[in-house]
Amino acid sequence: MSAPQVRMDKSRDFATVHGERLAGDPHVGVHFYQDGLPFDSSGILVADHIDLTAQTPLAEKLRKRVARKLEKAAQVRPARESDPSASADDDEDDETRVEKDEEDDEDDRPQPANLEAWARGEVDVPWQEVTQAIAKRFSKRVSNKRDALELLIEERVVAVGALSVKNRRALED
Q1: CA distance 118 to 133
Q2: What is the structure's pLDDT at 48?
Q3: Dist. CA 132–CA 71, nearest whole Å
Q4: Coil, strand, or helix at residue 86?
C-alpha cells in the first residue's frame, strides 16, 4: 500500500501561482496554495517545500496541519478499503487520493462538503450536506443525485472520467 498523499480540496478557496520559475527558485514546483500549504500542478502537497521545512513558528504550524491531514487520511483509507461495495475499477485511481482536511486552525466554523471528493467516491457525505454545499456554492437547488452530478460536471468541479463507477451509473440512469 502506498503512503497517503495530501491533496488540495478544489471545492474550497485556493490561490494560484502564476509566472515562470527558474530551477533554483524554492517555489519552482508550487502552482497552488490552500490554507498556507503549497501544492503542485496536480493538487498534491509539495512536502519538501521551504515553507514546510524551515525552522520557523509558521512552518511548525503548517507541519502540524499536514500531520493532521495525513492522520485523517490514514483513518479514511482503511474504511474505504474494507467497503465491499467498492469495485476494483473504482479503487484503481484512488490509491493515491485522500480525503482533504476541511478544518483550519483559525476557523472552527463547519466547512461545506468536499463536492469533488464526493463525486469521485472518495468520501461519503450525507445527501443533505451535498445539497447544502451545492446551494451555498452555486446558488442552485438539486433534488436528486443525477442533477447534482450534472451540475458539478457543468461547473467543471469534476470531469466525467473522474467520477466513481457508482456515480457514473447514477448519471447514466
Answers
A1: 11
A2: 84
A3: 27
A4: coil
